[in-house]
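Q: Give me the 3D complex with L-homoserine.
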Amino acid sequence: MKPVSVGVIGLGTVGAGTVDVLRRNGEEISRRAGREIKVTRAAVRDLARSRDCNTAGISLTANPHEIVEDPEIDVVIELIGGCDVAFDLISAALDHGKHVVTANKALIATRGNEIFHQASSAGLVVAFEAAVAGGIPVIKVLREGLAGNRVERLVGILNGTCNFILSGMQDDRSDYAEVLLKAQANGYAEADPSVDVQGVDAAHKLTILASIAYGVHLDFKSVHVEGISDITQDDIIYARELGYRIKHLGIARRLPNGLDLRVHPCLVGDDHLLSSVSGVMNAIVVNGDAVGETLLYGAGAGAQPTASAVIADLVDVVRTLTSDPGNRVPHLAFQPAALAAPGIVPLSEIVCAHYLRLTVDDRPGVLADITRILGDYQVSIEAIRQQGSADALGNVPVVIVTHRALEANVAMAVLEIEALSTIARAATRIRLETLEISVDE
Ligand code: HSE
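A: Here is the predicted complex, encoded as structure tokens.
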């Protein structure tokens, strides 16, 4: 049978990894797919640049439209990232009857509804396993392996760069900027690392996972997003002394009145599995009503792990080439007509414990004022510690861990505390998740 002809758009880290793994494991991959799979064309920005893979037998072009329009190409792999150009190319590939594999989480999270509509109408597949958590097959697991479950909660370390930075700050006491440079040098970070450290990349991934887990349309704007750039070495040390690590988490929960979707730094107990996920590794804990708790763990970024996901999609696409389009696994797990609007619970209504770091005047009565305000807002204190002695300005850090309390109440209490004349600067507030299935879930 004629080999399946693949055109790759973008031969950067993931593109080169994909070509490399396809060459190395080609024979075994073909035995799985039932057809030989060959990359025959690739589009690159700079034809003169050397590549991190063997491009023998691959015809290179600087014009990606040649690939999406080439009648000989069966499947297009889009690996250029970004939204506008990538959208146009994928849309053009679908117009030309080609299946698409993409690692583009920003595009799927923000324009996936349009893309899947176009693909389904044309009886084509757009596969996106590599868009979430690099090499971890979490899309496949949620969409197919857990199809019998009602997903209650999904919590994940979804951004390798954030996890690499927080782990580096914790394990080597390195500073933020130094670890970020290392992440970039290793090819983990996005072209613009602010997308990673501000939490946007993780929010793209959470949007996709929530859609598949709960059968709702993709709605990136409904995710509450915070990044890690305000986390200091002090927070990491104090959290550690209290028995926690700081992790950047994506959280999706089904609550009685809707979905809770958020991405932010979080204190996680030392004894929880997620706290031992270090470096660029990702992990996702999924709680289903039938299966209970499951944990998926693996490399969330990097050339070969992401190539592993791209090629798994490619094999799926090749297997479906001869299947009836109406009977394929739906793009977002639920049949398109059965997708609902995500009813989102506002952040202010979420109940969560908090870590608060305050910088206060070291004198009598200060703590009494703080605890009174917290009490006024029904925020109960689990632990309170003054860290060390006063600095040259007479200020001292005080760390408070609260019991679970209404987000709106904690926010108002912190505002009132910050207004006290004895508080030197804005408070640091980090949510603390026990990661137990609790009464309001
Ligand atoms: N920049 C991403 C991360 C790469 O750090 O996880 C994979 O999406």
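A quick observation: The longest helix spans residues 303-320.
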